[in-house]
Amino acid sequence: MLAILLVSAALAAYEPPTNLEMAEEAIAEACLGLPDSLLSAGFQSVSVSMDGDHQGNWLVLQGAVGALEAGGVQVTSSDRGSSGAVALRIRPMELSMSLTDAGRSWIFGSRRIDRELRCELSAELTDSDGVVVMSL
Questions:
Q1: Is residue 40 classed as helix, strand or coil in its secondary structure?
Q2: Ramachandran angles phi, psi of 89, nearest 5°
Q3: Vertex 12 angle, CA 8 and 18, to 5°
Q4: Residue 5 vs residue 122, higher pLDDT
Q5: Cβ–Cβ contacts within 10 Å for residue 47, how many?
Q6: Cys staple from 51: which of 39, 80, 91, 107, with CB 3.0 to 4.6 Å?
Q7: Mean pLDDT along residues 46-57
Q8: Could you give the 3-state DSSP secondary structure of residue 22?
Q9: Closest of 130, 129, 97 to residue 113, by C-alpha
Q10: Is 30 helix (H, G, I), strand (E, B) or coil?
Q11: What is the rounded CA–CA span in Å between residue 110 and residue 48?
Q12: Which residues in the chain belong to E strands, given as ranges?
């Protein structure tokens, strides 16, 4: 009886991730290679901007800046007045969630909805004249 109560308490304490938390994780995974690519090409400081008109741009920008800073790349303001400034332009190609395989484990049991979040990004590094230096 005690074991059943402990398992029930553990299951009740488990909180599945929210849609926002899943989106942040997918964006972080999509941005994993950005810092290494920039640093290996000799770019230690960039400004970041978003291309396209996607409603998730703010979330992608937040995730990309976080990934770059965590990877050792300095993110500067978007003011490109300084000479030699490079800009990383990011465009979300896909940022979507699919809800699949909904159901119940029992008639009056818990509901289950499998969620799959996809994030694909395109990124270009441009120099101060807007010329593409590198595609990531």
A1: helix
A2: -100, 125
A3: 150
A4: 122
A5: 18
A6: 91
A7: 90
A8: helix
A9: 97
A10: helix
A11: 43
A12: 45-50, 74-76, 87-104, 111-126, 132-135
